[in-house]
Specification:
The protein has 132 residues and is mainly α. The two termini are 28 Å apart.
Length: 132
């Protein structure tokens, strides 16, 4: 597992760690029951505070991605397909909320926003089909 931190980002470090681990779980890079680095080891590897890695792991556990086994470590939990889908839907809604807010600031109508979304989907599909 590789975690890249952007120190100039407005996103807190613990959130960057959490999101990258979450992405690794959802993509299948991290498998069910896989042992994660210890909180202290991850803090050392990333050169961050143990408090930072503890916060990331605690949030991941609350969100259902990992489980802590006292004295053994933190493991990736079994993730159901419905759970994965609900996570992607949640992230999509957050992204679309940002897009709506920005489109309003730009003075776009919902019709124009829908048109942009359709164009982006078409471009995405063309790139995906081209890669086959």
């Amino acid at each position: 597992m590789r975690i890249v931190l952007l120190y100039q980002s407005s996103v807190p470090i613990y959130e960057q760690i959490k999101e990258q681990i979450k992405t690794s779980v959802l993509s299948g890079e991290l498998q069910e029951n896989e042992l994660l680095p210890s909180i202290r080891q991850l803090a050392r590897d990333l050169k961050v505070s143990v408090i930072t890695t503890t916060r990331a792991y605690n949030d991941l556990e609350l969100e259902g991605f990992i489980q802590t086994v006292p004295g053994k470590g933190c493991y990736v939990k079994r993730i159901e397909e419905d759970f994965i889908r609900s996570q992607y839907v949640k992230e999509t809604k957050a992204t679309l909320n940002t897009a709506i807010r920005q489109s309003k600031m730009a003075g776009l109508t919902m019709s124009e926003l829908h048109k942009l979304l359709d164009e982006l989907e078409e471009t995405y599909n063309e790139k995906r089909d081209y890669g086959k």
